[in-house]
Design a protein that fits this description.
- The protein has strands at residues 6-10, 29-35, 42-48, 53-54, 58-60, 64-71, 73-75, 78-80, 84-88, 93-94, 97-98, 103-109, 115-117, 127-131, 152-159, 164-171, 181-186, 190-202, 205-208, 211-215, 230-237, 244-251.
- The protein has 280 residues and is an all-beta fold.
- The protein has two domains: 6-131, Jelly Rolls (Sandwich); 144-267, Jelly Rolls.
- The strands form six sheets. Strands 1, 15, 16, 18, 19, 20 and 21 form a seven-stranded antiparallel sheet that branches. A six-stranded antiparallel sheet has the order 2-3-12-6-9-14, with no helix packed on it.
- It is globular and about 60 Å long.
- It binds fe (ii) ion.
- Residues 187, 191, 221 line the site of fe (ii) ion.
Length: 280
């Protein structure tokens, strides 16, 4: 499988690496959340150092999708500060790309992000800039069987033709299925998640802020709930998002055992749950 099932890890457990990506990213510190061994498509956290810049016009052969977690960056005169989002498709010109204070960004590339000098021709629509705080929370089109999670969302990108969707999801605190039982569900597409804050309890353990999963199509998951609520980034890929529910109601617990599904390369995280910082 080009990108294995990873459910779940915590970014805090990963090392910062350099020379993972080609220029101009080679000296940018990188945490690789997942990577496709065939195409080089990857989900990463990039930490650009203070003063990093690329003044020459260039374009990437990969789509560059990012959410700023900390710091800021300017690209083509657009300033991206924390909680801002962009989707710059393959071929989109990146010019006068600079950060004085540095930037940490959750970053997704659709292939190895090889840079080619000079302007390019984007092959699809860009989403040049979204400030998440300028978007309203919505509850339309949410599966009513998930009402117990009190979900609100902000849809950042929805390409039904390609079967790609990116959204921010917010789930309520002290949420659990009615009667502490619910069916599992699956989707006919990849589901990917990065947890920005809060927690998610599920059948594979408890995810805390900084957790990440890459779940290929057809894998059963849930039921889920949350003690403190949560805010996360979700991407659906390789197909459109549909909830296929199982028939059997399964018990739910806010204190499940730690049983992640991980490839051998991440087996060191199988045994020990991530120790979340406590508020006291
Ligand atoms: Fe799901």
């Amino acid at each position: 499988m080009a990108r294995p099932h990873i459910e779940f890890i915590h970014a805090q457990d990963l090392e910062w690496q350099t020379d993972v990506l080609p220029e101009p990213f080679a000296d940018v510190e990188c945490k690789v959340l997942s990577m496709d061994s065939e195409t080089g498509a990857c989900s990463t956290i990039l930490r650009y150092p203070k003063g990093w810049s690329q003044s020459e016009a260039q374009h990437l052969v990969a789509a560059h999708e990012f959410l700023v977690l900390d710091g800021s960056m300017e690209i083509d005169g657009q300033d991206y500060a924390f909680d801002s989002y962009g989707y710059l498709p393959a071929g989109q010109t990146h010019e006068n790309w600079k950060t004085s204070e540095g930037m940490v960004a959750l970053t997704f590339f659709s292939a190895t992000p090889t840079a080619i000098p000079g302007p390019g021709n984007p092959t699809e629509q860009s989403i040049p800039y979204v400030n998440l705080h300028d978007m309203k929370w919505a509850t339309a089109d949410i599966d009513p069987d998930l009402d117990f999670l009190r979900i609100a969302h902000k849809i950042l990108r929805d390409d039904e033709t390609k079967g790609e969707k990116t959204m921010i999801l917010n789930c309520g605190a002290q949420s659990h299925p009615d009667g502490w039982k619910e069916a599992a569900l699956s989707h006919p597409c990849v589901e990917e998640m990065y947890l920005l804050s809060g927690d998610i309890a599920g059948e594979r353990g408890v995810m805390h802020a900084g957790s990440y999963f890459w779940r290929p199509a057809g894998i059963w998951h849930g039921p889920f709930g949350s003690r403190n609520g949560n805010l996360c980034v979700i991407r659906f890929m390789d197909g459109n998002h549909v909830n296929d529910w199982g028939k059997e109601k399964l018990p739910f617990s806010l204190t499940p055992d730690h049983k992640p599904d991980l490839p051998d390369t991440l087996s060191q995280f199988k045994a020990k749950p991530f120790s979340a910082p406590t508020p006291y």
